[in-house]
Amino acid sequence: MNAVAETPDQHLRARARRVIPGGMYGHMRSEGLPASYPQFFERGEGCYLWDVNGRRYIDFMCSWGPVIVGHRHPEVTEAVQRQMLLGDCLNGPSPRMVELAERLVDLIPHADWAMFSKNGTDATTTCITLARAATGRRKILIARGAYHGAIPWCTPNTLGVTAEDRAHLLYFGFNDIESLEIAAEQAGDDLAGIMVSAFRHDYGLDQHLPTPAFAKRLRELCDATGAALILDDVRAGFRMNLRGSWDSLGVQPDLSAWSKAIANGYALAAVTGNDRFRDAAARIFVTGSFWCSAVSMAAALATLDVLVRENGPDRMHATGMRLRDGIAAQAQAAGIGVRQSGPPQMPTLLFDDDADFAKGESFCAEALKRGVYLHPRHNMFLSTAHTEADIDAALSATRDAFAALAAG
Amino acid sequence: MNAVAETPDQHLRARARRVIPGGMYGHMRSEGLPASYPQFFERGEGCYLWDVNGRRYIDFMCSWGPVIVGHRHPEVTEAVQRQMLLGDCLNGPSPRMVELAERLVDLIPHADWAMFSKNGTDATTTCITLARAATGRRKILIARGAYHGAIPWCTPNTLGVTAEDRAHLLYFGFNDIESLEIAAEQAGDDLAGIMVSAFRHDYGLDQHLPTPAFAKRLRELCDATGAALILDDVRAGFRMNLRGSWDSLGVQPDLSAWSKAIANGYALAAVTGNDRFRDAAARIFVTGSFWCSAVSMAAALATLDVLVRENGPDRMHATGMRLRDGIAAQAQAAGIGVRQSGPPQMPTLLFDDDADFAKGESFCAEALKRGVYLHPRHNMFLSTAHTEADIDAALSATRDAFAALAAG
């Protein structure tokens, strides 16, 4: 092959530039990644991913979260195939919707009911609509810099957004109780709800778990004012705790937004809520053409079966810790300062003295070369398909990546 | 069986009331339909649909639009199965995204590029964001009463919506040029875009195709002001004209929103646009966890293949006319005044002197009893799976339904 021959990925990128704005859009645009990262992917199997150039990777992005029991998990595929023999998008829901709602209500302590949609943004938007509908108030508090979706009220890029789209948002700092109290004070008797991510997983920053005092104060403020405590569990949901990411903190939200991992990559989102919000949930009008589709719900039921049976969060915690400990030891041995943050199931790896992410990108590019797909800025994701052997194989690649980085 | 035994549908409704607000939500809630209509469905095949009670219907809702070549079309299923062997939701798009964008750009005259999402609402919302981003202006004109989605800026039920969510919307009457000009005048130099449905398909009303003068004036106004002409083809797309619903009018939009029928029921939406909006489309941030998923795109490619090869719109026009002509003759013979409106591919059937829809509901309930699923208020949908024999079978049921109605 000629050294300058175009790779399949390069060829697809050139075709994409003609017919897709910027060649790609949104969070899956590869622009923010080292140049050697592929844009287009061919297939996935378990914790492995193949790009269109035929290269295989041990995957630590899991499709940016959705894949939680591994690509093409046989049990999920079987449930999907069974439902496909019946039908997917019908004139109304199938029994799968009731079964899944019952399943979530059984599993999640705060949940008295569930509703389904297609995007995480659908779920977060339904939550704020619900908070306003139930309380008759308007103000929503969110953490500064938190990602809650990508429509005008929440997208991180305000191009095309008007000031009015965010007229009733007030901001606080994650884990900053004083700023939370000030924002609640500003909202006064117009406080409809407080939305908070399961943990602080802002792009390019060290991740922070919520302090117990912060979570407790959120609950108190909502109890005192009648506002809705809304947990945005879209990104973290089902990885930290199957009962909701704050269950172990002893703090239950009024409403939770779920998506990503709920159906192992099939398009589904959910809102769960308690009885205080049931009536408002029955009265608002939210819908979508595919919100009742049965296949994604069959996939969710199978995914939850696997996660419960295999104790998914604990398993991902263990493999995530193995990865974290291994990387920490390698970094120390190489004399390179790194910071690992977030829950081990959703690791973030950042380098010291690396404001422009140049070190992180070099490291990730070296790992990629060796068949390990990491992200230099965003939190990553484990799945239950990652075995100890996969982690060890990945650590063998990261060891070499550290060595390459140390060698300059 | 005991006469009062609970049916499977009743049993599921009772279970649903415990764990789903109101027992169901959104447009698929059966509350607005006669009591005999089922809420839950078991399966679909071609133009047939089975409810959970085991009753089969000739289906004229087509899942409220998405199913356009028939449930479980073998060619679509085969494309889906082939893609499922590879993967669906990966760390980025698969080649299917480029292929589908190329396909849409080839097919749709105004389209220089395409972007994909999951809900019709995603597509309409992206269009208004794009119009604002490209023009640096804020005002969007929409037709009074038109449905463009179900998030706060557009949902028909304003519970949970704030005034600011709609601060920059101005309203005109569909096909009412004078009101359109007044609204454009009000927007002045802040006019970002005008969004209009392919035809007036408002709930519970006679449907109206756009007049050529109205469509032409919309184009002129946008050309004169630099605003985006946005065609909401979510509901009508691919049924009236594969090149876009206004192609036969000789009016091309700047941006079009698509969803529903694009992938025969698989969750997919798209925005197509011309080069004037390409740069803004590359710069706004819109995304979703499942927006790059390959299976729905493989389904769309196969669906478009079938529609092009079989000349889907003409075929649905012919079967739709057969249904319309048959119903008109039956109504006349029964001495019952009905109004049939909208394109024949998307028929609406309303009864004279029927402000409370009581006649329409009785008629539809009688048809349902005889195995034909119609809607008494909403526009209906044909698919290419409806054969002349299916239409004739449906007409045999509607003849009896008219007779029952005439008998009081």
Please provide a written account of the structure.
2 copies of one chain form a homodimer. With 408 residues, chain A is α/β, with parallel strands linked by helices. Chain A folds into 2 domains: 8-69 and 311-406, Alpha-Beta Complex (Aspartate Aminotransferase, domain 1), CATH 3.90.1150; 74-309, Aspartate Aminotransferase, domain 2 (3-Layer(aba) Sandwich). Chain A is built from 11 helices and 13 strands. In chain A, helix 3 runs parallel beside helix 8. The longest helix of chain A has 23 residues, at 312-334. The radius of gyration of chain A is 22 Å and the shape is globular. At the A-B interface, helix 1, strand 1, helix 2, helix 3 and strand 4 of A face helix 1, strand 1, helix 2, helix 3 and strand 4 of B.
Layout of strands and helices, then pairs:
The structure is a homodimer of 408-residue chains.
Chain A: H1 8-19, E1 41-45, E2 48-51, E3 56-59, H2 74-84, H3 95-107, E4 113-117, H4 120-135, E5 139-143, E6 169-172, H5 177-187, E7 191-197, H6 212-225, E8 228-232, E9 255-258, E10 269-273, H7 278-283, H8 294-309, H9 312-334, E11 338-341, E12 348-351, H10 358-369, E13 372-373, H11 388-406
Parallel strand pairs in A: 3-13, 5-6, 5-7, 7-8, 8-9
Antiparallel strand pairs in A: 1-2, 2-3, 4-10, 9-10, 11-12
* Largest sheet, spatial ordering of strands of chain A: 4-10-9-8-7-5-6
CATH topology (level 3) name of the largest domain in chain A: Aspartate Aminotransferase, domain 2
CATH class annotation of the largest domain in chain A: Alpha Beta
Tell me the number of helical segments of chain A per DSSP (H or I, 4 or more residues long): 11
Q: Report the β-strand fraction of chain A as a percent range.
A: 5-15%
